Amino acid sequence: MSMDGSMDQPPEQKKASRLRLRVTTAAESRLRAGHPWLFAESIREQNRPGRLGELAVIYDRRDCFLALGLFDPDSPIRVRVLRAGKPLAIDPAWWSALLDQSLQRREGLSDEQTTGLRWINGESDGWPGLVLDRYDRTLVLKLYTAAWLPRFDEVLALIAGCLRPERVVLRLSRNIQELAGKQFGKKDGEVVSGAPLDGPVVFQESGLRFEADVLHGQKTGFFLDQRDNRRQVESLAPGRRVLNAFSFSGGFSLYAARAGAVSVIDLDISAHALAGSQRNFALNQSLASVAACRHEITQAEAFRWLGEQRDRAFDLIVLDPPSFAKRETEREGAAQAYGRLARLGVERLARGGILVACSCSAHVTRDEFFAAVRQSAAAAGRAFDELQITGHAPDHPAAFKEARYLKAIYLKERKVGAAAG
Questions:
Q1: pTM for the whole thing?
Q2: What pLDDT shows up at residue 37?
Q3: Confidence (pLDDT) at 415
Q4: Residue 83 — very low, low, confident or very high, per pLDDT cuts 50/70/90?
Q5: 213-243: b (≥16 Cβ within 10 Å) or e
Q6: Phi, psi at 353, each rounded to 5°
Q7: pLDDT tens, 289-332?
Q8: Domains of the chain, start order
Q9: Using 50, 70 and 90 to split pLDDT, how confident is the model at 17?
Q10: Following DSSP, what letter does each residue of 327-356 receive, concatenated?
Q11: In what order do the strands lie in the sheet with 241-245?
Q12: Helix (H), strand (E) at residue 94
């Protein structure tokens, strides 16, 4: 199978007509506006049954080209758009140029001090359902749609040939792991190119050393998307007592310790995550400020623990929970949960303290999330200044609504008698 759009069919089916689709008026409008997904219920005409991973051409009501993308006959997202607007040959040169564009968007974002980076961020980089992360000399290729599986060898050859990594690890979303194994002989956590690997890899972020469990860890092994927020927390941490709730592998904590935090508590329900945090601190003990910081780990459910610690106060609290809304029907409950968590955080905040509240729930909008946190802060009867709000880092662009998941708000309690800034 070739990456060339004209050669995307097996030999016995090369004479088959191009898969042609016509869609509803509403879907036409969404595709023209740049949305990268075509849902199954939006297809009103299809000239023949489509095969997994083949190129489907979408036409408008006037039989003019509208878009082209990867077809998946078994997914609610029936087509993931590669190209919209004007027709263009999808050949090896096109794929190579698409990769070059993704790499160029990241120019200047990494150096010797930062060797962890996202090279490709799915639809927002024109690679729908595909993510490519770098951890030093190891690349992690994660697929969120089975539509890439028939093209996997060509994709891998392109990436490995361009970036020359020590190895490439394949990660697969849970919904496609069974199919990948049965039909394509691929498994999650498999080293598909280069040197074998039997444990985490170590990379640098802003001069700090971290391990990434690229074989079995969440996402691709580390939460690269929070890099900019970790750097901001570092600037706020000197001399403070810090609580990192939902700490995972201790990223925020390690930045705070380097900055000169007096103490840091990592709070997480997972013993595995806390052990990872301890290893990350051990990797950085050569830094005097990290060695001097009192680092504690606490395994507990965060809501319960925060509610019980009536006699504890912290100068800087980071709340970075996992997504509270996996689907749209959970949106309202998730917004309420964010508000409740922010209230518990404010209750544990020392006078003049800083609260950093984050959300990674795409179904909860920025406005909903920020409103929930602000209302909780106001209900506490304490005046706060809003230092900043943040979104996606440059290597995690978000080009459409469903991709915009990450947001954070920084609140600092106003000193008595001080005017609002």
A1: 0.93
A2: 98
A3: 76
A4: very high
A5: bbbebebbbbbbbbbbbbebbbebbeebbbb
A6: -80, 170
A7: 999 999 999 999 999 999 999 999 999 999 999 999 888 999 99
A8: 5-84 (2.30.130.10), 92-201 (3.30.750.80), 223-413 (3.40.50.150)
A9: confident
A10: SGGGHHHHHHHHHHHHHHHHHTEEEEEEEE
A11: 294-299, 263-268, 241-245, 314-319, 349-359, 407-413, 384-390
A12: helix 92-105
Separation of alpha carbons 36 and 56, rounded Å: 13
d(CA 352, CA 413): 5
The segment with the largest mean pLDDT, out of 118-127, 320-329, 409-418, is 118-127
Q: Which residues contact 213 (CB under 8 A, 6 or more apart)?
A: 200, 221, 222, 276
Question: In whole angstroms, what is the distance from residue 282 CA to residue 270 CA?
Answer: 19
DSSP letters for 227-247: HHHHHHHHHH-TT-EEEEET-
- What tokens appear for 55 in the block? 């190129």
Residues 108 and 129 sit within 8 Å (Cβ to Cβ): no
Residue with tokens 């459910």: 301
Query: How far lies 333's CA from each of 269, 325, 369, 390, in Å?
Result: 21, 8, 12, 23
The DSSP bridge partners found for residue 103 are none
Interval 400-420 mean pLDDT = 86
> Catalytic residue numbers?
360
Task: Identify which of 189, 145, 197 has the alpha carbon closest to the alpha carbon of residue 167.
Answer: 197
Both tokens of 172, joined, read 């697969």
Q: Of 361, 355, 352, 359, which is closest to residue 376 (Cα–Cα)?
A: 355
Strand partners, 341: none
- Phi and psi at residue 228, to the nearest 5°: -65, -40
Q: Are 147 and 50 in contact (CB under 8 A)?
A: no
pLDDT score, position 7: 37
Are 299 and 274 in contact by the 8 Å Cβ rule? The answer is: yes
Give me the torsion for CA of 28, 32, 33, 38, rounded to 10°: 50
Q: Which of 131, 120, 156, 133 is nearest to 221 (CA)?
A: 133
Q: Which residue has the tokens 């990192």?
A: 244
Burial 54-91 (b: 16+ CB within 10 A, else e): bbbbbbbeeeeebbbbbbbeebebbbbbbbbeeeeebe
43, two tokens? 């297809």
